[in-house]
Amino acid sequence: MNARREVLLGLVAGAAGFGLLSSRAFAWYLEEMTPDQEAAFLEACRAAPVKQAENHTGLIAAARQSLAQRIANGQLPSGTTEQVGCPVCGCSFVVTADGTN
Length: 101
What we know:
By secondary structure, the chain is mainly α. The protein folds into 2 domains: about 1-30; about 30-100, no CATH class. It has helices at about 1-25, 35-40, 50-55, 55-70, and strands at about 80-85, 90-95. Strands 1-2 form a two-stranded antiparallel sheet. It starts with a helix and ends in a 5-residue tail after the last strand.
């Protein structure tokens, strides 16, 4: 009689403990952007191609430098192009060692 009672109490305690742990493990938390962060994301890209190039100068320069370095090291042929995507807005650019298309 004691064994059955202990098993049932153990099952109830285990189920309660699992319920408490699983609710914490599967918790979902969303953090709202601050107005400054939201403005930065909204300003990341504009419709005009000239404005896009202005907003992405650092990304394009880094990709161009990396491509030129790999060409200079002999890892890539001289006419290689590389497609670069902006991680913020998704704009896509084709970068060459000489410039950007």
